Amino acid sequence: MKTLKLAAIGAALFATATVAQAGQTFDAVKQKGFVQCGVSTGLAGFSNPDSQGNWTGLDIDMCRAVAATMFGDASKFKVTPLTPVQRFTALQSGEIDVLTRNTTQTLTRDTTLGLIGAGINFYDGQGIMVKKELGVKSAKELGGATICVQPGTTTELNLADWFRANNLQFQPVVVEKLDETVRAFTAGRCDAFTTDKSQLASVRTTLPNPDNYLILPETFSKEPLGPMVRQGDEAWFNVVRWALFAMIEAEEYGITSKNVDQMLKSNDPNVQRILGVTPGMGKNLGVDDQWAYNIVSQIGNYGESFERNVGQGSPMKLERGLNATWRNGGLMYGWPIR
């Protein structure tokens, strides 16, 4: 009996310690008054600064959504630009609170780094871009080619896997920073450039003559991109995950930045819970009940963010594809806010 009592006491102490640990990042963010987000060093459509240093993009909107959830103000964030090699160390060390940089979620990253993915905000796949003058129409014609790739990425591993599986040889040209990789490709140091297809489309819009470049049809991999946080802090993990789900759910229920105030009068119980008309959902996250209202009113729903940054309202003009809602044939499926 004594042993059982001691075990019970030990379990209670462990649970208490776990709860205390769980709020560490949440409490630190609240105390300093802003969210520190890790982003790419500059990728049009995802995270890119303008001439005044104002950052915009799909991944920036993810960061802003977390800020809106925590503070009711989407402007309360700062960014730390990171290369692929730097990103995980920055999150592990606490230099940043959340990695909103376009990062592929994989088993290895979820189980060996002390980090965990909090959701997917863009479904992508890896491809290859070439100059049209090369006369290549398929990646299978690139045997013996030199290919520019960034180190420390799933891209580097996928490239080797695909060429090996197709019995083709290639010569990697490894360059760490994206802008340097693009310069190497356009200067002719490599025959082709590989990364996620969305990134290739983004890069192509920045080149002097975009029509001179071709993204080949092959898709080498699945690249589910989304935010990551440190493991062991469930309170913070929930804030990041549900900020994303709120944007997806808002689109599904037709709640936009333009009609969100009108939707406060909706009789739909789902809409009432999303917008905080029905109380309780904010308390469960440790934030204000109008957290999702603040996201949508200041940033928009997921569809608005997509179209503005990478869709038809942007220079990239990407189709929704896999990033459409599940009702429209895509994979975007927010969990119920209830």
Helix-strand string? HHEEEHEHEHEEEEHEHEHEEEHHHHHH
Helix content percent band: 40-55%
Which class best fits the helix and strand makeup? alpha/beta
| Structure summary, number of beta strands | 14
Protein name: Amino acid ABC transporter substrate-binding protein
InterPro entries: Bact_solute-bind_prot3, SBP_3_CS, Solute-binding_3/MltF_N
Keywords: Signal, Transport
Domain Solute-binding protein family 3/N-terminal: 34-263
Describe this structure in words.
- InterPro entries: Bact_solute-bind_prot3, SBP_3_CS, Solute-binding_3/MltF_N.
- This is Amino acid ABC transporter substrate-binding protein.
- Belongs to the bacterial solute-binding protein 3 family.
- Residues 1-22 form the signal peptide.
- Residues 34-263 form the Solute-binding protein family 3/N-terminal domain.
- There is one protein chain.
- With 338 residues, the protein is of the alpha/beta class.
- The protein has 14 helices and 14 strands.
- The chain has helices at residues 2-22, 24-32, 58-71, 84-93, 107-112, 154-165, 178-186, 197-206, 234-252, 260-263, 269-274, 281-285, 291-298, 302-309, and strands at residues 35-39, 48-49, 55-56, 77-81, 98-99, 115-117, 122-124, 126-131, 145-149, 170-174, 192-196, 213-215, 223-225, 228-230.
- Strands 10-9-11-8-12 form a 5-stranded mixed sheet, with helices on both faces. Strands 4-1-5 form a 3-stranded parallel sheet, with helices on both faces.
- Helix 3 (58-71) crosses helix 9, helix 3 (58-71) runs antiparallel to helix 13 (291-298) and helix 9 (234-252) packs across helix 13 (291-298).
- The protein is globular, with a radius of gyration of 22 Å.
- The protein starts with a helix and ends in a 29-residue tail after the last helix.
- Mean pLDDT is 92; it is low at 1-22.
